[in-house]
Design brief:
The protein has one domain: NAD(P)-binding Rossmann-like Domain (Rossmann fold), CATH 3.40.50.720. Helices cover 46% and strands 13% of the residues. It has ten helices and ten strands. The strands form two sheets. It has an eight-stranded mixed beta sheet with strand order 3-2-1-4-7-8-9-10, with helices on both faces. Strands 5-6 form a two-stranded antiparallel sheet. Strand 2, helix 3 and strand 3 form a beta-alpha-beta unit. The structure holds NADP nicotinamide-adenine-dinucleotide phosphate.
Length: 335
């Protein structure tokens, strides 16, 4: 998609679409939201507590921040104290993700999981064995989701509900250039290289890899009697949050002060898209889909083109093997 079409779509969505206020009933349900101490995750957690969930787990990298968020949610929703739990999860550390996954397995049920935590920065930093966007926004994000999937499937069977696994992506995947894919070797190796990296494209690439992965997870985990789990990828649109916290340069200043203040949604409004992506009555058609403005949206030419389809195939072969090296057996839940 060219930048003009992207910007036209973005402004249309931001200026003319009103995201529906969440009203679905979450009674009796257990929901996990990662990165829920602030921003979109916090507001999604607040909605889900308000909508009657039995237990909402805030999975955060700093427990004290999670506890502050929990107090804030309790004060504004008047919910009972024991409804909210705070669990540690650091997506820049695979051991932390695996420990989180083990804890998920011990739950009685898990109805919905929102993988929301993510980063955006123009500085190259490493986390585990790759560049931080790739580790946090893609590898660990998917690892956490896959570790939760068996519990979601079990819940759907045991309690006769539709379970939901949502990944927070971004419409910026529409304009990812993904030059790293022009090499013939390993994509993960190409993405880990600091030399020649285009950090201006890296966040968009991470969200493109996420949508490739969500499509594959959905295809390899079809909705049937054994597994009534909807897996989707959604965008909240441009929102005023802490996402630019690492950005102090002129580019960030322009984006934040002009673009964001003119068209951005509040995190409360953006969070409605997160809640929509895991609402108990979400349509089966959302399985494997990209959701924008709380509707199934086009995947864009980076996905629905011969190049996109070939890249998705190439990516998933390498990525599933990578996940197996980090957590042996984790992909067994897939076909
Ligand atoms: N804001 C937008 O315009 C926009 C648009 C499209 C998509 N999104 C996506 O929406 C999601 C939430 O973003 P936001 O706008 O709410 O940003 P935010 O305010 O910066 O919140 C990001 C959350 O992710 C957590 N996080 C970051 N790195 C982590 C790690 N290594 N391990 C665990 N948690 C980590 C943060 O924790 P700390 O507070 O401890 O750092 C924070 O809770 C992200 O996936 C983002 O890509 C945002």
């Amino acid at each position: 998609m060219n930048t003009t079409s992207f910007l036209f779509g973005l402004f249309k969505s931001q200026l003319f679409v009103r995201l529906p206020y969440p009203t679905s009933d979450f009674s009796g349900q257990i929901v996990i939201i990662t990165g829920s101490n602030t921003g979109l995750g916090l507001e999604a957690a607040r909605h889900i507590v308000r909508l009657g969930a039995a237990r909402v787990i805030l999975a955060v990298r700093t427990i004290s921040k999670g506890e502050t968020a929990a107090r804030d949610i309790l004060q504004t929703t008047y919910a009972k104290k024991n409804i909210i739990e705070v669990w540690p999860l650091d997506l820049s550390n695979y051991e932390s993700v695996k420990a989180f996954g083990a804890r998920v397995q011990a739950l009685d049920r898990l109805d919905a999981f929102i993988q929301n935590a993510g980063i955006l920065t123009s500085h190259y930093t490493s986390a585990e064995d790759n560049e931080a966007h790739i580790t946090v926004n893609v590898i660990s994000a998917v690892l956490a989701g896959l570790l939760a999937l068996p519990k979601l499937k079990e819940t759907s069977r045991k309690f006769g509900v539709k379970a939901r696994l949502a990944f927070v992506g971004s419409d910026l995947h529409y304009i990812a250039k993904f030059k790293e894919a022009e090499t013939s070797g390993s994509l993960l190796d190409a993405l880990s290289r600091k030399e020649g990296v285009n950090m201006g494209d890296r966040y968009s690439v991470s969200k493109l890899l996420l949508i490739y992965t969500v499509r594959e997870l959905a295809a390899r985990s079809p909705i049937d009697a054994d597994s009534n789990v909807v897996i989707d990828c959604l965008t909240p649109g441009a929102c005023k949050s802490d996402i630019f916290r690492d950005e102090q340069g002129w580019f960030a200043a322009v984006i934040q002060s002009v673009m964001i203040s003119l068209v951005a949604r509040t995190t409360e409004v953006g969070s409605r898209a997160l809640v929509h992506g895991v609402k108990p009555d979400i349509e089966d058609g959302a399985h494997g889909a990209f959701l924008m403005d709380c509707k199934i949206a086009s995947n864009g030419p980076n996905v629905d083109s011969p190049r996109g389809r070939a890249l998705q195939k190439r990516w998933i072969q390498e990525f599933l093997m990578k996940l197996e090296t980090i957590s042996p057996g984790v992909t067994k839940v897939l076909l």
